């Protein structure tokens, strides 16, 4: 007799170049397959444990590979069903419909890309479906990692803009329009892009050590860029050429100039990423092989002997460090800005991103890195670091461009920054803070 609860897992047979293609900007096809296999194994263990305790039916909906290949990969304890339909929405609707025909009253669908998914999420989803038409597990990227239904709902799946950051909100809107009683689970991060891999690096399994090697004594300098052809050459000159103990990673957010060419000519590893400084720095850190990480703005020049300064600093009892700030402009206002930044950094332990924040890679990964934000990502990270230990301000200075202060004036820039901090502390969304910053209006 069929169980009233049916758990469906969507998976595909891993093939190089066809699996998790949005990771290919940073990893080889073979490495992406290894990453996917780990995600699949994690999810299969989760599903096995849950189904043995819950007693629900389980179906594994697959695409790619032969039945024998898929069976060898996942084992013989699942009902294997081939995915059918032209779109992801068609395939999920067909799966829910089939489960209902088998007698399911509550059906939950998950994928294989959420390492934060735990049995309690599945338990709660099925419990909520006893009193709700629809259950969604929202993902950080604007999609969802879980959907649960009492019965098939074609309007929830038809002509959905799959693969965009609007899927979750669009699904909610459609549910409201259909008067579907909807419940939400906790927000989780799923793995679609390189920047999503930071938590995985914090708990790296042995099977992925070759994909994510770490070289003791090596420093990885990570530089997010967007149309930085003018400033990047001077920055890279001070960074120096990559060598055995220095890795230089430029993470480009869709530049339209020669930024990437300049970086490649310098010998840097170049990654194309989704734009946004937090996102780009996480993407760079996801592939970094250094024991130490240094995050450098593209218009900021490091001091001499910075490699030794960083490694010696992090061998002492500090959690992170940064350099004093120097601005390449001679006005009195700029000197006052430097003084304020350096006072704040030393006495309040609050350096910002233009001071070249550095820390041990293991610390960064254990903290899950930066938030994938376009603004305030350095402010938020520093506040978390400050709770963990001492942030050292080195006496040597980085030299950063004064362009952002000169654009609207030093004091207007200072006031705008203070407004953004105030908005952040008051709980405004990052999107609203970003809009306020770039509209150059004071709130």
TrEMBL record:
It holds the Pfam family Glycos_transf_2. Residues 220-346 form the Glycosyltransferase 2-like domain. Keywords: Cell membrane, Glycosyltransferase, Membrane, Transferase. Its EC number is 2.4.1.-. SUPFAM superfamilies: Nucleotide-diphospho-sugar transferases. It is an enzyme of class 2 (transferase). Its main location: membrane. CDD domains: GT_2_like_a. GO terms for molecular function: glycosyltransferase activity. It is found in: Cell membrane. One of its GO terms (cellular component) is plasma membrane. InterPro entries: Glyco_trans_2-like (IPR001173), Nucleotide-diphossugar_trans (IPR029044), Trfase_1_rSAM/seldom-assoc (IPR018641), Trfase_2_rSAM/seldom_assoc (IPR026461). Gene3D superfamilies: Spore Coat Polysaccharide Biosynthesis Protein SpsA, Chain A. This is PGL p-HBAD biosynthesis glycosyltransferase.
């Amino acid at each position: 007799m069929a169980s009233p609860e049916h758990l469906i897992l969507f998976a595909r047979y891993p093939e190089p170049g066809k699996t998790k293609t949005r990771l290919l900007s940073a990893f080889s096809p073979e490495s992406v397959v290894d990453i996917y296999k780990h995600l699949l194994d994690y999810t299969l263990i989760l599903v096995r444990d849950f189904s043995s305790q819950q007693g629900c039916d389980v179906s594994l909906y697959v695409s790619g590979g032969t039945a024998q290949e898929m069976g060898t990969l996942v084992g013989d304890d699942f009902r294997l069903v081939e995915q059918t339909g032209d779109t992801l929405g068609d395939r999920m609707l067909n799966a829910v419909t089939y489960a209902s025909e088998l007698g399911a009253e509550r059906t939950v669908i998950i994928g294989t890309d959420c390492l934060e998914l735990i049995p309690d999420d599945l338990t709660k989803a099925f419990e909520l479906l006893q009193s709700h038409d629809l259950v969604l597990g929202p993902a950080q990227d604007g999609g969802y990692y879980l959907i649960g239904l009492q019965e098939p709902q074609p309007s929830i799946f038809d002509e959905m803009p799959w693969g965009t950051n609007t899927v979750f909100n669009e699904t909610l809107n459609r549910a409201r329009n259909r008067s579907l009683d909807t419940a939400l689970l906790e927000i989780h991060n799923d793995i679609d892009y390189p920047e999503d891999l930071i938590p995985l690096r914090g708990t790296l399994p042995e099977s992925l050590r070759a994909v994510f090697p770490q070289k003791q004594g090596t420093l990885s300098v990570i530089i997010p860029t967007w149309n930085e052809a003018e400033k990047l050459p001077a920055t890279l000159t001070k960074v120096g050429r990559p060598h055995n103990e220095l890795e230089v990673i430029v993470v480009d957010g869709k530049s339209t100039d020669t930024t990437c060419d300049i970086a490649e000519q310098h010998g840097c590893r170049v990654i194309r990423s989704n734009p946004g400084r937090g996102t780009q720095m996480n993407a760079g850190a996801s592939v970094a092989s250094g024991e130490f990480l240094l995050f450098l703005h593209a218009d900021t020049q490091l001091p001499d002997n910075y490699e030794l300064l960083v490694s010696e600093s992090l061998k002492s009892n500090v959690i992170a460090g940064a350099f004093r700030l120097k601005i390449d402009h001679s006005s009195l206002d700029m000197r006052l800005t430097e003084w304020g930044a350096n006072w704040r950094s030393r006495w309040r332990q609050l350096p910002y991103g233009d001071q070249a924040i550095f820390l041990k890679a293991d610390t960064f990964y254990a903290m899950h890195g930066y938030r994938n934000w376009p603004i305030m990502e350095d402010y938020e990270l520093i506040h978390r670091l400050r709770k963990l230990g001492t942030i050292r301000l080195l006496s040597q200075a980085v030299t950063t461009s004064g362009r952002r202060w000169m654009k609207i004036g030093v004091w207007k820039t200072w006031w705008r920054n203070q407004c953004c901090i105030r908005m952040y502390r008051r709980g405004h969304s990052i999107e609203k803070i970003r809009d306020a910053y770039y509209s150059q209006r004071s709130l």
